[in-house]
Amino acid sequence: MTQVDVTRARLLGAVPHGFLGRRGGVSEGVLAGLNVGLGSEDEPAVVSENRRRAAEAVLPGAALTTVYQVHSPDVVIADHAWPDADRPHADALVTNRPGLLLGIVTADCVPVLFADAAAGVVGAAHAGWKGAIAGVTDNSIAAMESLGADRSRIVAAIGPCIARASYEVSDAFVKTFDDADPANERFFTAGRAGHHQFDIEAYVVARLAAAAITQVEALGLDTYADADRFYSYRRSCHRGEPGYGRQISLIGLPG
Predict the structure, then answer these.
(1) Sign of CA dihedral 220, 14, 135, 179
(2) Where do the domains of the chain lie, and which CATH numbers do they carry?
(3) 3-class DSSP assignment, residue 15
(4) Are 152 and 51 in contact, with CB atoms under 8 Å apart?
(5) Which secondary-structure segment (H or E) carries 103?
(6) N or C: lower Cβ tally within 10 Å for the chain?
(7) Which residues contact 228 (CB under 8 A, 6 or more apart)?
(8) What is the per-residue pLDDT for 255?
(9) For residues 91 and 67, is the Cβ–Cβ distance under 8 A?
(10) Do 107 and 231 contact (CB within 8 A), yes or no?
(11) Rounded distance, CA 169 to CA 164, Å?
(12) CA dist., res. 75 & res. 93, Å (int)
């Protein structure tokens, strides 16, 4: 059995966490590996087993809880693990409850894990471009503060996501970011006619810095370029595949 692939961030230290890839699961076909997507074209029992393996690889015995992600800036405070069918619609969650393991699923979007170890508060955010520009990371920080965290102590780590070299966008897409803030021009480089390459990882880093998060670690892992290790929505589309898997990023507090 292939071992679950867990990448950890130096800044998060001893806080139980991990950015997982596609290795170590039981899904087959184009979804082969550790597909944890409840909305994917995969057998529910297979996804459930993959999610169990993922949780055990990061914080054995913890209760995994996730949200129904909708590319929003919305954050919820988790005080228990919701049944999968009752997941709140949001794109980030925070907690100060020991024994809870927060999970965010991605397939090119930016996963961000947060921790204030001194306060015992952690968070996880799914920052697709819509959520990122609307402030999902800012809202995650504010929600952590409501539980007693201090942003001067909060550290953040950014896991596997699509890289600039792999993320081609249109002129209209660039205009959305330019209209929000002309300084966003620095996250785009010229590509083929009418197109640009977007560095969404750098954009999220900048949003965190603007929110006074002084310790940020970006792992620089490109989901699109590494098919053996990560799922990628865009790569699956380009290949004409019938579906795509999702990987999970996890953080929690020991029980």
Answers:
(1) negative
(2) 6-163+199-252 (3.60.140.10)
(3) coil
(4) no
(5) strand 100-106
(6) N
(7) 22
(8) 80
(9) yes
(10) yes
(11) 10
(12) 5
